[in-house]
């Protein structure tokens, strides 16, 4: 299942996101979206978790939690 993580701090790294979601299950892909001109975070990322139950667990546990002073939003990514 592919999850969209929004409202990330510009300083949050892809590795930090991967670690955060890995506490809820296997993460096969993590993609922090970067601005092409500045190479800085755009404040959102995609996380791929193959086990739907683990992904739902991560979504429930992490939605509206604070990461680096920002309240993140997690939802299922549109196809």
TrEMBL record:
SMART domains: RRM (SM00360)
Start and end residues of each RRM domain: 1-79
Keyword RNA-binding listed: yes
Matches recorded under SUPFAM superfamilies: RNA-binding domain, RBD
Keyword Repressor: no
Short name of any one Pfam family annotated for the protein: RRM_1
Keywords per UniProt: RNA-binding
UniProt-listed InterPro entries: Euk_RNA-bind_prot, Nucleotide-bd_a/b_plait_sf, RBD_domain_sf, RRM_dom
PANTHER family: OS02G0815200 PROTEIN, RRM DOMAIN-CONTAINING PROTEIN
Name recorded for this polypeptide: RRM domain-containing protein
Provenance organism: Thalassotalea insulae
């Amino acid at each position: 299942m592919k999850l969209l993580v929004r409202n990330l701090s510009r300083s949050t790294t892809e590795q930090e996101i991967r670690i955060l979601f890995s506490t809820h299950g296997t993460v096969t892909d993590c993609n922090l979206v970067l601005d092409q001109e500045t190479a800085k975070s755009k404040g959102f990322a995609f996380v791929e978790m193959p086990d739907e139950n683990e992904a739902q667990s991560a979504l429930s546990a992490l939605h509206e939690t604070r990461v680096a002073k920002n309240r993140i939003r997690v939802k299922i990514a549109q196809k």
